[in-house]
Design a protein that fits this description.
Blueprint lengths: L1 E5 L2 E7 L4 E5 L13 E6 L2 E6 L3 E6 L19 E4 L5 E4 L10 E2 L2 E2 L24 E3 L2 E3 L2
Antiparallel strand pairs: 1-2, 2-3, 4-5, 5-6, 7-8, 9-10, 11-12
Length: 142
């Protein structure tokens, strides 16, 4: 599964074993320099993406399978990461932008160090320079 920006629009790709599916929010571009909230909800093979609590896209994966089979317990943010032989990783589709908070099932994931639900294992080519206060529709810099 992969949540990505495609020409400025959010797109979620996944495969439950019976072929790939892609759901895209076409009603708002999110590469505009403002903060946006994004939620991805998946129940069975049905997916809903919600941007800024307003813009919604929905769709379903093909076939009858409804379980995602993941290759590992690792979760990657900011790029598509494929593990190759001998532990090497192929990193593609790198994200350029700012992430403020990442939650899975309403639990915040650590953006540095570790917490009771997970730990940050590695960082590649990351610059920490995103400042600002989130107000829906705008960013205010202190």
């Amino acid at each position: 599964m992969l949540l990505q920006l495609e020409n400025g629009f959010l797109q979620y790709r996944f495969d439950c074993g019976t072929g790939p599916a892609s759901i895209r929010v076409d009603s708002i571009a999110v590469n505009d320099g403002y903060w946006h909230t994004v939620a991805v909800e998946r129940i069975s093979r049905n997916v809903r993406i919600i941007v800024d609590d307003v813009y919604i896209a929905e769709g379903s994966g093909p076939g009858t399978n409804d379980v995602l089979n993941l290759d590992s317990n690792d979760v990657f943010f900011g790029a598509e990461v494929k593990t190759l032989v001998r532990g090497y990783e192929d990193i593609q589709h790198g994200f350029v932008g700012c992430l403020q908070k990442i939650r899975i099932d309403l639990v915040d994931l650590p953006l540095h160090g570790s917490s009771s639900v997970g730990r940050l294992l590695d960082i590649h080519d990351v610059e920490f320079h995103c400042d600002g206060i989130y107000i829906p529709g705008q960013i205010i810099y202190p």
